[in-house]
Amino acid sequence: MADDFLHRAVPALRKPVFRLGLATSHGIDDDGIRAALDRGVNYLFWTRPRLLPHLRDAIRRDRERIVVATGPVVGLFPFTIRRAAERALRALGTDYLDVFQLFWAGRMSAVDDRTLGELRRLREEGKVRAIGVSIHDRPRAGRLAAGSVLDLLMVRYNAAHPGAETDVFPHRTGRGPAIVAYTATSWRKLLRAPRGWGDRPATAGECYRFCLTSPHVDVTLCSPASAAQLHDDLDAVARGPLDPGEMDFMLRLGRAVHG
């Protein structure tokens, strides 16, 4: 599949991805998850039980279309990382995970020679295709982007927190590591008019389009609360990148939200 605004071939995953990925932290129901899969969403960030039966079904139907991204709840020691990977493989009934990542590097996980070595071994064994971390520390993320064993970085990026544009993105070599953006709505702050703001707030769809307009972002995560919100988000990103006027609006709003 050729790259376009909505699709991208990510070498580390060995398959194309739909650039709006799905998380379930805001309680989307079963109908909403099924609707996401029916409309082509294939990057599925699995941290909550609700998604598991849908993942198993999707994997049985077409394993090579689905991208499963998950990781250990706490990744401080090599044995906990391996144990979490093995449990995920058994739960899904698959022989590999597309993305296995350490969450919140420096807080809930340690990114050091021991943990990175265990991730690398899982990749070498074929149990994991891409290894990564989620991280808030942008300067450290930039160093990891410039030179590490990691295939993927999940970083905060939105109109109120665009610092990854200077701290992370320029340090990538080639097209790797892949970038997954999260907190696109800045924890919903961009969806509410900040104090003193004389214009409307953004829509969730505009927030996702902001992230995806960056050529450095491979996937941005959405977390709708309902099937209706999911359809609104997908309809919005189908409009393509932000035009200059829309980008200016988002940056002005982001500065106001950041305060």
Q: What key phrases describe this protein's structure?
A:
single chain; 259 residues; alpha/beta; two-stranded antiparallel sheet; 9 helices; 37% helix; 18% strand; globular
What is the helix content?
25-40%
Query: What strand line-up does the widest sheet have?
Result: 3-10-9-8-7-6-5-4
Q: Which H/E pattern describes the elements?
A: EEEHEHEHEHEHEHEHEHH
- Strand-pairing-aware structural class: alpha/beta
**C-alpha termini separation:** 42 Å
- Residue ranges: pLDDT <50 for 5 or more in a row? none
> Major beta sheet, specifics?
8 strands, parallel
What global shape is seen? globular
SS element count, helices: 9
Strand segment count: 10
Report mean pLDDT, rounded to a whole number: 94
Strand content: 15-25%
Task: Determine Rg (CA atoms, Å).
Answer: 18 Å
What would you note in describing this structure?
This protein is 37% helix and 18% strand. With 259 residues, it is α/β, with parallel strands linked by helices. The protein has an 8-stranded parallel β-sheet, covered by helices on one side. Strands 1-2 form a two-stranded antiparallel sheet. 44% of the residues are buried.
Give the helix/strand layout.
Layout: E1 7-10, E2 15-18, E3 20-22, H1 30-38, E4 43-45, H2 52-62, E5 67-70, H3 78-92, E6 97-102, H4 113-124, E7 128-135, H5 138-146, E8 152-156, H6 164-167, E9 178-182, H7 204-213, E10 219-222, H8 227-237, H9 244-258
Parallel strand pairs: 3-10, 4-5, 5-6, 6-7, 7-8, 8-9, 9-10
Antiparallel strand pairs: 1-2
Helix pairs in contact: 1-8, 3-4, 7-8
